[in-house]
Every structure is written in C-alpha cells, then in structure tokens.
Amino acid sequence: MRRVVVTGLGIVTPLGVGVRRSWRGLVDGHSGIISVKNRGPGFAALPSQVAATVPRGSAEDGKWDATERLRPGDERKMASFAQFAIAAAQEALDDACWAPETVEERESTGVHVGSGIGSFDDVYDTSVAYHSGGYKKVSPLFVPRLLINLGAGHISMRYGLKGPNQSATTACTTGAHSIGDAARLIAFGDANVMIAGGAESCIHPLAMAGFARARSLATGWNETPHLASRPFDRARGGFVIGEGAGVVILEELEHAKARGTRIYAELRGYGLSADAYHMTAPREDGEGPLLAMKRALRHAGVSPRTVDYINAHGSSTILGDAAENRAVKSLLLGEGGKQNATDINVSSTKGAIGHLLGAAGAVEAIFTILSISENVMPPTLNLENPGDPTEDFDCNYVPRTAQHRRVEVALTNSFGFGGTNASLCFSKYG
C-alpha cells in the first residue's frame, strides 16, 4: 500500500475565504454564525433563525464575491456549492504548487469532491417556475447545476485532469468519505495526486424548515446567534446550519518527495461504519462512531494511547454529542489507552462555524491537519458547563480558548443521517 500525504489546503468557511483567515479566526475564538431573520419572510417565520454563512464582500477582505473568484460565465454555469469547491480547489493547488501540464501528470491527477445536498436553491426556484410557467421556464442548465458530481466535474474540466473523477453524497459524512476514498485511490495506484473534499451551500428557508421539523436545529439563540452552537455544553439544543467548502491535495509520498513540496501531515488511517439503527438519531451507546475510530486506528497501525487530539463531529445536538463522547472514552480509556479522562483532548470546531453538512468533514479535516502542523488544538466555543453529570463529560474539550501542545496523531470524525460514520487518522510526517 502506497503512503498518502497532504500537500495542499483550500477552504471557504463562515470565518472567511482562505486557509489562513479561517484558521486564525478559529484559533482566536471568532464566530461565523449570524442571524438570517432579515433575509426574508421565509427565514423570519422559522423557529431557528441563525446560520453560518460565508461572508459576502471583497476578496481583499477575505470575503466571497463570485465575480472576483471565478472566471466569466462560471457563475451562470455553476451552483453555489460548485463555486465554493472551485475556489477551495484553486487555493489548495496553489498551496501544493501542483499545476499538472504533461499528459502523464494530468492522467495521474484525479478529483473526489462531494456534497450532501447540492443546489437546493435551483431545485426550489425551478420547481416554483415550472409550476407557474411550465416547460419553457426550466433552464437548460438546471440539471447540470443540480448534479452533486458537477463540483468535481468543473474542477476536472478547469484543469484538464483525467484521473479518477468521483463524488460522495453521504449526508454530513460526505467530506470525510471523499478524502478517505481519494486516499485509497492513491494507495492502490489509481492516481498519484487527488483533489479531495466537500462543498455545501443550502441555507434556504425550505432546507432549514426541514431540519427544524426533524428537531435538529438550535432554536433558543435567535437573538444571540454567536451562542447558538455549543458542542458538549449542557445547554446545547441542536446544530446551526452552515455553508462552505474544504479541499485538500492528497499525494503519494514518493511523488511529493520527488517534487520537494511541503508535507503538512500523513493520512494514516480511514475507518467506516454504520449505526444500522435510525434515520436521524444515533445509537446512544455510540457503537457506530466507536467502530469507525477503531478501524481508523487499526488501519493506521497506532494504539489509542498515541492519539493526542480528536476533532469531534460534535454538532451540538443532545443525543449526538453524548453518543460521540461515550465512543471517544470507550476508545481511548483503559488497556492500550489513557489512564484518565482528563488526558483525552477533544474539541468541536462547529461552535465557531456551525455544521457545514457535506463540507463539514473536509473543513474539519483541514483544521485537524493544521492542529498537527502548528501544534494547536482549536477551541470549542460556548462550552460553559460540560453536559449533564449523568453523561460523564469529563474529558478536556478545549473550552473557549485554543490550547498549544504537541500533536503527533489526531483523529477527525464525521457522522451523518442514515447512520453513516467515518473517521480519519492523520499524523506528523516523518
């Protein structure tokens, strides 16, 4: 099996556009969650009126302006999630100094970028237009803008990449699955370089209404949106919907060494599992997440005691955070693991950026890679009182303030509706 390393990072988040801006905002404790009440009557009528939106404005200020980030005509052809994916991919390629030009380079470079929901706006707007005006109101670009795999497709076409071209759509596990599956394509020799990640942009009243009806969204902080996402906190009451994209450049180790490029971290392990339990609720004992993490460590060939940090799925839901906490403690405590719960370091970056759905796993993988590269554990915002005493929330959840410590091995978790789970294990290269 060929070894896989990370050589480039690209990101679009509610904290800003670009890796450095998003990472610095995260470490400094900033929040990208705002009120969307005034966006229109559809939002104002919802029980949850907060969301983590990508800030709009000048690229010079680290914000999103499609006309500055894309080529002429792209905005018409691409849905928002694909636009975010293109921008993140460009940053990641530039960061990796990888610009494939020869036939061999292009044939050995692939793309694996997915989305959980895709272009919700196009579905809604076209449905309304078709209902009122019929066939001629449907744009010829409707289906191409709609398809999940067009994020990856546009990246492939932009750079002339002829390696594997795939997309995962596994709800909130999409980004992690995309990175893990892409790594396996490299490990098995199907590509030397993969552009991998996830993108999402579905902050729409109907999408939010659906999640709210499923009792998944935070509803008690409409007047104080920055407090709404509170992973592991006793007062947590649901997740905050977000948007953005995360893309990494994965590369076969010898290929990266031959180029002399910077290596952020090595992707050592990838574990998958299913809850086989419920459409939206996790098993309370956390068996599914535990299996995914165990398999990631087994694949990596490392023991639980060597895990320095876990970037948790930690979405701020009552059942989900408790189940993941149980899984983490089951994995890391006891024989082959750590002696005390306080030795377990785990945080959730969703306190700052909300839940980016299909992009979450990729963005959080980037934060995990940076925690290894820079020896910083990002904070869990709004963690004032760890969960109910009966839930045994007694680990170090990096409350409110980043902590500086050496991080050699880290896991990042993603779990999705349908009971699908993934865990990625990264380590320092060397």
Automatic annotation (TrEMBL):
Active-site residues (renumbered): C172
Pathway(s) this gene product operates in, as recorded in its UniProt entry: Lipid metabolism; fatty acid biosynthesis
Residue ranges of domain Ketosynthase family 3 (KS3) in the record: 1-428
GO terms, biological process: fatty acid biosynthetic process
Superkingdom, taxonomy of origin: Eukaryota
Entry keyword Transferase: yes
Keyword Ribosomal protein carried by entry: no
PROSITE patterns xrefs: KS3_1, KS3_2
SMART domains assigned: PKS_KS
Sorted UniProt keywords: Acyltransferase, Fatty acid biosynthesis, Fatty acid metabolism, Lipid biosynthesis, Lipid metabolism, Transferase
Annotated GO MF terms: 3-oxoacyl-[acyl-carrier-protein] synthase activity
InterPro entries xref list: 3-oxoacyl-ACP_synth-2, Beta-ketoacyl_synthase, Ketoacyl_synth_AS, Ketoacyl_synth_C, Ketoacyl_synth_N, PKS_Beta-ketoAc_synthase_dom, Thiolase-like
GO cellular component: mitochondrion
CDD domains named in the record: KAS_I_II
Listed Pfam families: ketoacyl-synt (PF00109), Ketoacyl-synt_C (PF02801)
Homology family: Belongs to the thiolase-like superfamily. Beta-ketoacyl-ACP synthases family.
Protein name per Swiss-Prot or TrEMBL: 3-oxoacyl-[acyl-carrier-protein] synthase
Protein source organism: Viridothelium virens
